[in-house]
Amino acid sequence: MEPLLGRGRILTLCSALLLPAPADGALAPKLQQAVEAFERGAAGGVFNTQRRNANKTAAVVAEQPVQASGRGGGRRGAGQRQQRQVRVAPPPLGTTGMVWAKTTPIAAPGLYAHLLEPTKGPARVARMREVMAAASALLEAQHPRHMTLLREHGRGREHHGAGTGPFCSMSYTLNYYNRVHFDQDDPALPFITWLLVGAGELCGGAFRLGNLHLRFTPLHGTTLLLNTRLVAHGTEPCATLSGDLRRLGSAAWVRHCVVAAVERWRVGARKEFTRNRPKAFSDPEAYALWRVRKAAELDQAHKAAVARHEAEPRSRGSPSEATLMRRSIMACGDKAAEALFDWEV
Which helix (H) or strand (E) element contains residue 239? Predict the structure, then answer.
């Protein structure tokens, strides 16, 4: 679970702060830049669809007309129209930026896998940085005080390069909806931005803050600073009635455990690289990941030996060789990770 930001000024923030875009059009250039950046990013494969928790996302039950068969002696005659309920799958949610999955044996903390592909990865990372920069610029204009606090809390670090803003990860949705829920594993200070893309008519999509008893329909440029661990929240179904108008929704956040894991991995990889000086590698992280994968080969060999009854299985809960190798590398970066955040802010 992410730590609560409770020792400094960030605690003075309200649980939810909603800002519509100003009516005078002052933000129009930044809004347009954000829309264009998101559209280029989505077209360029920046966002990867993630599996959604059933406790948060449920398929909508819709009415579908069917033709009655006229069989069975019921009151409805042959040819009479009837309705049946069908489940419509929820729209996808894409994410980009940094991730860390401890349960994947040979994984290392860092960018999502689709951003690391040899051929398409570099272009996706460049587009991802454009999206981060445009979204952060919009939020800086609407939430200057809170963005300043977030930057101070992170000691000014911009995790994807200069000008990209203080966030490590970001989501992307179109006409999204989900159940009202809490996010107990979320960081305490995520931002949500809504933009309208295309032209036409849109129906629904109200955002609900359950335990605050608030409900509103996001407009073009509406932003929300929300403590998702304390405020129940969810989005009602949304549909395009005419044209191609869609509501783009995006959350941006800094997840402490991910950022810390990435720093531990990077610093540990550099130290291991400097200590061992491998001639076959020029990149410290590539060398560290190679060592983890070689350790995983030992795990596979042991598993095969167990299947042949030539070795004893590991005790329940015992870490694999790959996990032990990754832990040893990351342990070299523990001190660096401790200094990432200013917990007095």
Answer: strand 238-243
